[in-house]
């Protein structure tokens, strides 16, 4: 059962505020999408990669991803395909799913989580292959989280011990993810769609280095991590 990684990289990066679409902004001199794909390949858990990019970036992405992984030469070659995404992240993931109808499992992994350790990717794949139909990396929440009403008045404080911050890659039995995406409701992550089908989503330990590069501060942090050789 082939493990196909889908890499949503078709966002604009409005919050980062760079002129280039975010996934093509370099970190330590290498575009985020290339770092993310190299991490997937280095995990040894992925048979094929589908990268989803803005229409005007297809040629640039193909050139950027055509050479073999920068991270090591000992793995068998992993084919990397580039397809065009859509306006919302869910549209981009849907395009990725359509490009890989042969998948047995999907790992959906944000290009913006460029520093994700290969060990985390392997952990998700292992749990999936052990029989969990949906797997997400999770970290304890450090801030207290509150809900608010339209006026910004606090309406509740969920018990922090029960909360987790969720990262990617998120792993799914392929048929389950196709079914989840056949429904047309919004969600801020892929597992959210699976939860609505009533299927249990399992967690594995996340990793701080799998943080999403969203704002200029995140980019500064990522540059700092790479410059000290961190991981
Ligand atoms: N993404 C995508 N297609 C979209 C929107 C987002 O493939 N239409 C991807 C992004 O490229 C990113 C991941 O989904 O790798 C997570 O999204 P986010 O961090 O929100 O990135 P952007 O949408 O690019 O950033 P912003 O919301 O600040 O514009
Ligand atoms: Mg976005």
TrEMBL record:
<comment type="function">
    <text>Catalyzes the formation of 4-diphosphocytidyl-2-C-methyl-D-erythritol from CTP and 2-C-methyl-D-erythritol 4-phosphate (MEP).</text>
</comment>
<dbReference type="Pfam" id="PF01128">
    <property type="entry name" value="IspD"/>
</dbReference>
<feature type="site" description="Transition state stabilizer">
    <location>
        <position position="15"/>
    </location>
</feature>
<dbReference type="InterPro" id="IPR050088">
    <property type="entry name" value="IspD/TarI_cytidylyltransf_bact"/>
</dbReference>
<comment type="similarity">
    <text>Belongs to the IspD/TarI cytidylyltransferase family. IspD subfamily.</text>
</comment>
<protein>
    <recommendedName>
        <fullName>2-C-methyl-D-erythritol 4-phosphate cytidylyltransferase</fullName>
        <ecNumber>2.7.7.60</ecNumber>
    </recommendedName>
</protein>
<feature type="site" description="Positions MEP for the nucleophilic attack">
    <location>
        <position position="160"/>
    </location>
</feature>
<dbReference type="InterPro" id="IPR034683">
    <property type="entry name" value="IspD/TarI"/>
</dbReference>
<keyword id="KW-0808">Transferase</keyword>
<dbReference type="GO" id="GO:0019288">
    <property type="term" value="P:isopentenyl diphosphate biosynthetic process, methylerythritol 4-phosphate pathway"/>
</dbReference>
<dbReference type="InterPro" id="IPR029044">
    <property type="entry name" value="Nucleotide-diphossugar_trans"/>
</dbReference>
<feature type="site" description="Transition state stabilizer">
    <location>
        <position position="22"/>
    </location>
</feature>
<feature type="site" description="Positions MEP for the nucleophilic attack">
    <location>
        <position position="212"/>
    </location>
</feature>
<keyword id="KW-0414">Isoprene biosynthesis</keyword>
<keyword id="KW-0548">Nucleotidyltransferase</keyword>
<dbReference type="InterPro" id="IPR001228">
    <property type="entry name" value="IspD"/>
</dbReference>
<comment type="pathway">
    <text>Isoprenoid biosynthesis; isopentenyl diphosphate biosynthesis via DXP pathway; isopentenyl diphosphate from 1-deoxy-D-xylulose 5-phosphate: step 2/6.</text>
</comment>
<dbReference type="GO" id="GO:0050518">
    <property type="term" value="F:2-C-methyl-D-erythritol 4-phosphate cytidylyltransferase activity"/>
</dbReference>
């Amino acid at each position: 059962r082939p493990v196909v990684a889908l890499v949503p990289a078709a966002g604009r990066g409005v919050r980062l505020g760079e002129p280039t679409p975010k996934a093509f902004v370099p970190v330590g001199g290498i575009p985020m999408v290339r770092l993310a794909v190299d991490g997937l390949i280095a995990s040894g858990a992925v048979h094929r990669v589908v990268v989803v990019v803005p229409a005007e970036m297809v040629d640039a992405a193909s050139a950027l991803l055509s050479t073999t992984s920068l991270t090591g030469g000992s793995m068998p070659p992993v084919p990397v395909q580039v397809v065009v995404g859509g306006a919302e992240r869910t549209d981009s993931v849907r395009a990725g799913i359509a490009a890989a109808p042969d998948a047995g499992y999907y790992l959906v992994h944000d290009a913006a989580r460029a520093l994700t350790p290969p060990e985390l990717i392997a952990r998700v794949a292992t749990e999936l292959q052990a029989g969990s139909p949906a797997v997400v990396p999770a970290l304890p929440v450090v801030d207290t989280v509150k809900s608010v009403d339209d006026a910004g008045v606090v309406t509740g404080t969920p018990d922090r011990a029960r909360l987790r911050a969720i990262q990617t890659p998120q792993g799914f039995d392929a048929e389950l993810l196709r079914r989840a995406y056949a429904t047309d409701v919004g969600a801020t992550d892929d597992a959210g769609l699976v939860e609505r089908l009533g299927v249990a989503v399992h967690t594995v330990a996340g990793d701080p280095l799998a943080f999403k590069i969203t704002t200029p501060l995140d980019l500064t942090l990522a540059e700092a991590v790479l410059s000290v050789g961190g991981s």
